[in-house]
Each structure stands twice: as C-alpha cells, then as structure tokens.
Amino acid sequence: MIIAQANIDDALEILSLQKLCYQSEAKIYNDYTIPPLIQTLEEIQSEFEEYFFLKALKDKRIIGSVRARMSAPDTCYIGRLIVHPDLQNQGIGTRLMDEIEKKFRECMRWELITGHNSQKNIKLYEKCGYHIKKAEKLTSRLSLIYFEKNNEKIE
C-alpha cells in the first residue's frame, strides 16, 4: 500500500469511495442525506483548493483517503477519513491519520468530528490519541462528538 497526496484528478474516485464508505454511517443514523453522501463532484473538486488530500493506493486503486486544512492559526481540522469497507480493520485508517498529522506537524492541535453512535470511528480516534473535547446535540437522533489531539512535538 502506498499513501500519497491526492489531486483534483482523483476527485471522482475519492467521491465514489466516500459515498460507499458513508453508507454505514447513514444506516447507523437512518439518514441517507448526510453531507458525505450528497456531495457533488463539483463540491469535492472545489475542496482541493483549501484542503490537503491524501489517498491510500493498492494496485493503483484508491482504497482510502483523508483530508485536512488549517482551520485556525494553530489548529488543523481533519475530515472524512475513509477506507474501503472490505479493507477496514487492517491499519489503513491509522496510517492515513499518521500521515495527515505528519503533513500538518507544525500545528498545535488536530481536531475532528464524528457522530455519537459511530463506535468504530470513536475507537479509532481514541487509539490514535484523540480525546473528546465536547459533544453537541444536533437532532433527537444525532449528536456530534468533537475530538482533539494536542501536538506533543511542539515545544
């Protein structure tokens, strides 16, 4: 497996994988209108202007991705970590998280968000050293869990 920077030419393949991966999230919350599922090709292409995308490749096929951007002078926001459903629990998500943190190693903290019932995500983020910063109830069916991880390398 190779992890490399993705570019706008990868947008369609990443979007297709994203829509496949987020089916499990939609099922958890019984909501198939979540943003990752309704995002358009034009929208993801425009994200390449402000986000740094990584892709995980196996046999020249994108099997995972993550994106991040600086959201404050000292904070990196990480979003939409995805790994093909058939290849989950093999360390690919952890490798993508490690690599995106390395890319933004100068920030003081990394932040990300997941749903309160997304137990696999919560477990992965805690394994990667993230802790819950706050929870925010959006609807009767969904609360968002905000995670953060301080950069221990900054002195």
Question: Would you mind describing this structure in some detail?
Answer:
- The chain has 155 residues and is α+β, with helices and mostly antiparallel strands.
- The protein has a single domain (2-150), classed as Aminopeptidase, CATH 3.40.630.
- It is 32% helix and 35% strand.
- It contains 6 helices and 7 strands; from the N terminus they run βααααβββαβαββ.
- Strands 1-2-3-4-5-7-6 form a 7-stranded mixed sheet.
- The chain starts with a strand and ends in a 5-residue tail after the last strand.
Question: What portion of residues is helical?
Answer: 25-40%
Radius of gyration: 15 Å
Question: Which spans have pLDDT < 50 for at least 5 consecutive residues?
Answer: none
Assign the CATH superfamily.
Answer: Gcn5-related N-acetyltransferase (GNAT)
Task: Quote the distance from N terminus to C terminus.
Answer: 33 Å
Proper CATH architecture: 3-Layer(aba) Sandwich
The description of the largest β-sheet is: 7 strands, mixed
CATH topology, which one? Aminopeptidase
Strand content: 25-35%
- CATH uppermost class: Alpha Beta
User: Biggest sheet, strands in spatial order?
Assistant: 1-2-3-4-5-7-6
Overall pLDDT confidence = 95
List keywords for this structure.
155 residues, globular, 7-stranded mixed β-sheet, Aminopeptidase, alpha+beta
